[in-house]
């Protein structure tokens, strides 16, 4: 009967006394059987055979609007409704909107940018819509890139192939867009409004005839074609107080083909040249 060491995972004799007791006082062999054990490859701790589940009470909890104060007078808000977001935007016209923080974090940490007022848009319901319409797909600006990947794959499977040429191009490009950790937090709208010259997706929005819905402080919505939205280097067609609400991708026409290509130094997790 071999004993498997919980530290190395290999047979050893360090715990034989725990596995069996040989030869009792009457000369009989008394074998004590043990169930197979599993161990952590990180620190050698014994592990339960059942994997821990995510606490269900956390999945059922209701999100709340938040207001936090940070060091040096920094204020951080997390509204839940578009109306509350627009109110905050009117009170703090120079506030920076934050979603995944993948761009603003770099600016603050490496470019010494100062943003005393931050407004998180991750939980605004109206910015998290995903609607499959008769003429195309509507994507809320706060939708995570990883979630967009999932919905695009579903659409590609279910709809006619000629309608999803643009969707397939975006889906293929997302495969090489940063890493999974970044895509789990980065938002569609954040990537668009950054207007980066090395963006993987912005050229595709233009090629796909995408339209951007923009809302102002009074709640009025206007529509701008993607090709007209980008005005220059990190400049977009957003007036003071305006917010990118959603992105609309029309279904491709029959005999219309959209294809993506990315030129970069390496295949994965690299910027586009």
Automatic annotation (TrEMBL):
Q: Name the PROSITE patterns for this protein.
A: FAD_PCMH
Mind telling me which residue stretches traverse the membrane in this protein? none
InterPro entries per the UniProt record, alphabetical: Ald_Oxase/xanthine_DH-like (IPR016208), FAD-bd_PCMH (IPR016166), FAD-bd_PCMH-like_sf (IPR036318), FAD-bd_PCMH_sub1 (IPR016167), FAD-bd_PCMH_sub2 (IPR016169), Mopterin_DH_FAD-bd (IPR002346)
Per UniProt, residues of the FAD-binding PCMH-type domain are: 69-254
Any GO molecular function: FAD binding
Its required cofactor(s), as named, are: FAD
Which residues constitute the signal peptide according to the record?
none
Q: Identify this protein by name.
A: Xanthine dehydrogenase
Q: Which organism is it from?
A: Cheirostylis chinensis
User: What phylogenetic lineage does the species belong to?
Assistant: Eukaryota, Viridiplantae, Streptophyta, Embryophyta, Tracheophyta
């Amino acid at each position: 009967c071999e004993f498997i060491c919980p530290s190395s995972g290999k047979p050893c004799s360090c715990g034989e006394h725990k596995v069996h007791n040989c030869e009792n006082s009457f000369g009989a062999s008394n074998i004590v059987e043990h169930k197979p054990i599993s161990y952590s490859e990180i620190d050698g701790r014994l592990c339960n055979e059942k994997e821990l589940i995510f606490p269900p009470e956390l999945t059922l909890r209701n999100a709340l609007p938040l207001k936090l104060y940070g060091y040096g007078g920094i204020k951080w808000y997390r509204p839940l409704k578009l109306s509350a977001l627009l109110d905050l935007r009117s009170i703090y016209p120079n506030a920076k909107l934050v979603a995944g923080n993948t761009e603003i974090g770099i600016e603050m940490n490496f470019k010494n940018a100062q943003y005393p007022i931050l407004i998180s848009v991750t939980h605004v319901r109206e910015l998290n819509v995903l609607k499959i319409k008769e003429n195309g797909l509507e994507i809320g600006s706060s939708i995570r890139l990883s979630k967009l990947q999932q919905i695009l794959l579903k659409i590609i499977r279910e709809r006619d192939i000629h309608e999803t040429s643009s969707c397939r191009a975006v889906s293929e490009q997302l495969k090489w867009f940063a890493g999974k950790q970044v895509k789990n937090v980065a938002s569609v709208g954040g990537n668009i409004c950054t207007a980066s010259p090395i963006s993987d997706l912005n050229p595709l929005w233009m090629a796909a005839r995408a339209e951007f819905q923009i809302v102002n402080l009074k709640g009025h919505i206007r529509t701008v074609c993607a090709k007209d939205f980008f005005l220059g280097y990190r400049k977009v067609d957003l007036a003071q107080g305006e917010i990118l609400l959603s992105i609309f991708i029309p279904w491709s026409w029959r005999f219309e083909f959209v294809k993506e290509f990315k030129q970069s130094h390496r295949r994965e997790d690299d910027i586009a040249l």
